[in-house]
Amino acid sequence: MRNDAFYPIGTPGQPWTAAEREAWLARQVRRRSYATDVVEAVERLRAHLEVVEYGRIEYGSEGYPLFAVRSRGWDETLPVALVTGGVHGYETSGVQGALRFAAGHAADYAGRANILVAPCVSPWGYERIQRWNAQAVDPNRSFRADSPAQESAALMRLVAPLRDRVLVHIDLHETTDTDETEFRPALAARDGRPFEPGSIPDGFYLVGDSENPQPAFQQAIVAAVEAVTHIAPADAKGEIIGAPVAAHGVINYPVKRLGLCAGVTDARYVTTTEVYPDSPRTTPEECDAAQVAAVRAAIDFALAQG
């Protein structure tokens, strides 16, 4: 089924111009507070983690400081475990899961790994519960040298000195019903393409790197998360969101070629989590806990393998 006129902005078949982007921006409304939900939570972590302000996002009169937290007593001889959340600002459990891991578990790895957590890469999108940034650019397709997204460029600058030392990177995401009702239709309209309706997987799944799939690593994470929440099954085509299922709850993308956050380092072990908070079979608390379980399992597996 095609629906060329599904989205209310733009002319079907024609990519957006500056005028359509401005019309889209005018529709975006602040719905929650980055300062309250994220910055205050980061400040509470100063008691046992080092807080790093690694950049600032500016859109007109609005500015957002970007924060990461890292292990106290950083040891240059130890491997680095990188956790990122909120690359898509609307994906709440990615942000909350990263903060919850930092608060409750980052110190567990003292003497074994340096932990670096960037809990909310896209604060403007977080406040508006939006996938894109204020320029209608998807940060999670923008992790490349000529990045058009301030958010992506700032994170790349943060990790650049560590790029070769990161052992494991886990990027925390969600797949929501609004992917199908808002964000995919908006993408099709922005790019002047027809909207092709799809389906939303009911449950947790992982996106590995097709160039470096590490199947045992991915399955260790799935096994840990399965104790917390359900894993998404394949659809009738044996796929999840249009990609072939490589193993239980796992698909693979070429993360560097697509400019995904998971490709921002040369880590041996990389993955992107996807929880489904709109499922009637789960809760926000369970989604946050699933993200934490995934982070812990990823780091534990990577350290055990060396």
Automatic annotation (TrEMBL):
Matches recorded under SUPFAM superfamilies: Zn-dependent exopeptidases (SSF53187)
CDD domains from the UniProt entry: M14_REP34-like (cd06231)
UniProt xrefs under PROSITE patterns: PEPTIDASE_M14 (PS52035)
Boundaries of every Peptidase M14 domain copy: 30-306
InterPro entries noted in UniProt: Peptidase_M14
Protein family according to the UniProt entry: Belongs to the peptidase M14 family.
Protein name as annotated: M14 family metallocarboxypeptidase
Species of origin: Coralloluteibacterium thermophilum
Lineage: Bacteria, Pseudomonadati, Pseudomonadota, Gammaproteobacteria, Lysobacterales
